[in-house]
Design a protein that fits this description.
The complex is a heterodimer of chains A (383) and B (159). Chain A has helices at 3-24, 272-275; strands at 30-45, 72-78, 83-88, 97-104, 115-126, 129-137, 161-170, 176-183, 187-190, 197-200, 207-216, 219-232, 240-255, 259-268, 282-284, 290-291, 295-305, 310-321, 332-347, 350-363, 368-382. Chain A is mainly beta and 383 residues long. Chain B is 74% helix and 0% strand. Classes of the chains: A mainly beta (383), B mainly alpha (159).
Chain lengths: 383, 159
């Protein structure tokens, strides 16, 4: 049996277990949950080989006007955004320990194997202090400020998930929180030789993130600062490293009863892999030296509730990287997206969504490309 | 100058009283032509409770946050809801205290006092349920509270 087939069968088995536990709902220690999401996407054109770009927005999969004849009006139907999770409901005498394990099916474009999203334990240690250990959304991200879009993540939103140790302190009224984390360090390097980005996972110093979050009646605001050591090790050469940093501001402003504005602004000379899947952390120049460059991204989203079950989001996203002269011509310099959607949740178990996405990117040599996509989806919550 | 939340709300209520004092058709008029408008304060709090409840309910549609993060956000919103319920309780007490000054038919006095007491009781239970983080109890009590508001306004405010 091939590895892919085995993984798909394992996924199917685990899904069945999740759903069985859900229907039994008698487990006192662990509470399973899931949502199944079926998405239908119609794109005006596409790259012949684009991996997950067929299923969700991948900036580097936006076709360029480079004289090639790309397939037109590609239709795709998938359920890979479905999610499955288990969380603990441990007894009081076990202490205030919370566990969460969550998967989706976006591991690969070719099969339905599971991808780990979250796996962490949080322990409250008294006095408003708590400790998280495991894989979760990066502390650099502000999850409350993510735009409510259907066609993948809005450009400029930070959704990195990675292993970490995170300490946090909340004020007694829970209106203020300080968070400090040591997170997995990976360096994504662009060099002069290849148009792809190289991932270096042997970095020894974790990414350091400090964040302050505040909540008020009008909404919430957070500011995060990060320091990273970017490393590069070419075959047969000494490794080299440089320290860089990035900041991110995120806010949610309540407008009226349920409407809200969500904003995220991030940038720095080591913001790279956090702000987009097409942005390098650093570059290797022709002399072989590691070079940091600035990159920044922003998202602005307005969510309007037509009534309590019908809502829309208009979202604009932007990212830009300052590319050195020596890098390959095919590296993405700038990208923009616009999303507009209509989501209807007649009950808390069902959501029907329709979204239009317009994507744009330009690469270092000036070539540009666009993508227009319409996505329809049906989501069924089991929790 | 920093004011505490109840003081800010009282100041806001006084401002609203000033702005709406010219409305002469209100049946909640005190003897001797003094207009009593403490009702704005509890209307304000009831609206706040209603908005917070709606925000808690729409969190069920959020697909960005994990169930754990959504629970944290619910707890945070419920804490705010508890604060509003506490103010609403004090306000219900004030409404009861002002009753002797209101021009009201004898037959209405019992009903009015009963509804004010119901408001206070529902607000108190809501504060408790919010403190416990009991979402289903909170939903039920908010519905009961809204029913009491509507009944009282229908009888004595005409809307």
């Amino acid at each position: 049996m091939s590895g892919k087939r085995a993984r798909s069968l394992l996924s199917a088995y685990l899904i069945a277990v999740f759903l069985h536990c859900q229907s039994a709902s008698a487990n006192e220690l662990f509470q399973p949950g899931a949502y199944l999401k079926l998405s239908a996407l119609l794109s005006d054109k596409s790259l012949p080989v684009q991996g997950l770009g067929r299923h969700t927005l991948v900036v580097n999969a936006i076709p360029l006007h480079d004289g090639r004849d790309y397939p037109r009006q590609q239709f795709n139907l998938h359920a890979k955004e479905s999610r499955f999770w288990v969380r603990s409901l441990l007894p009081e005498n076990f202490g205030s320990l919370r566990l969460l394990l969550e998967y989706d099916l976006l591991d690969s474009a070719d099969d339905y194997s599971l991808r780990l999203r979250h796996f962490y334990a949080i322990r409250d240690i008294g006095g408003g202090h708590s400790l998280l250990l495991g894989q979760a959304y990066s502390t650099f991200a502000s999850v409350a400020a993510l735009a409510d879009t259907e066609a993948g993540v809005a450009l400029g939103n930070i959704v990195v998930r990675q292993p970490m140790i995170r300490w946090s302190w909340s004020s007694p009224a829970d209106e203020l929180r300080w968070v400090f984390a040591l997170e997995e360090s990976l360096s994504r390097i662009a060099d002069t030789a290849s148009s792809g980005l190289q991932i270096h996972a042997k970095d020894v110093v974790p990414d350091l993130v400090l964040k302050r979050e505040t909540w008020r009646v009008w909404g919430s605001f957070s500011v995060a600062a990060m320091a990273r050591q970017i490393r590069h090790e070419a075959f047969g050469q000494h490794s080299q490293s440089q320290w860089g940093g990035a900041v991110s501001f995120a806010g949610v402003v309540n407008v009226g009863r349920l409407d809200n504005i969500r904003v995220m602004l991030s940038g720095g000379n080591a913001a790279g892999r956090y702000i987009g899947n097409a942005v390098p952390d650093a570059y290797v120049n022709p002399a072989g030296n590691l070079q940091l460059q600035g990159a920044y991204a922003a998202t602005f989203a307005y969510q309007h509730f037509w009534n309590e079950s019908l809502r829309s989001t208009v979202s604009l996203g932007f990212s830009r990287a300052r590319l050195p002269a020596s890098v390959p011509a095919a590296l993405t310099r700038e990208a923009r997206t616009a999303n507009i959607n209509l989501l209807w949740s007649p009950t808390e178990h069902y959501t029907l969504a329709a979204e239009y996405l317009s994507g744009y990117r330009s690469v270092k040599n000036g070539l540009q490309g666009e993508l227009n996509r319409v996505q329809l989806s049906l989501r069924r919550n089991f929790q | 100058v920093c004011f505490s939340r109840p003081l800010r709300l009282i100041l806001l209520a006084v401002l609203l009283i000033q702005l709406t004092a010219c409305n002469g058709s209100d049946p909640m008029r005190a003897a001797g032509s003094t207009v009593v408008r403490d009702d704005q304060l509890h209307a304000l709090m009831a609206t706040q409770v209603d908005v917070l409840m709606a925000r808690i309910q729409t969190l069920a549609f959020d697909q960005n946050r994990t169930v754990d993060e959504l629970d944290q956000e619910r707890r945070r919103q419920m804490r705010q809801l508890g604060i509003s319920a506490q103010s609403l309780q004090s306000s219900a007490q004030s409404v009861l205290q002002m009753r002797p000054a209101l021009v009201m038919a004898v037959a209405d006095v019992g009903k009015f006092e009963g509804l004010a007491a119901q408001l206070g009781s529902a607000a108190e239970q809501l504060e408790d349920a919010a403190a416990r983080g009991d979402l289903s109890a909170v939903s039920e009590l908010v519905a009961r509270l809204q029913g009491t508001c509507a009944a009282c306004h229908q009888l004595y405010r005409g809307f």
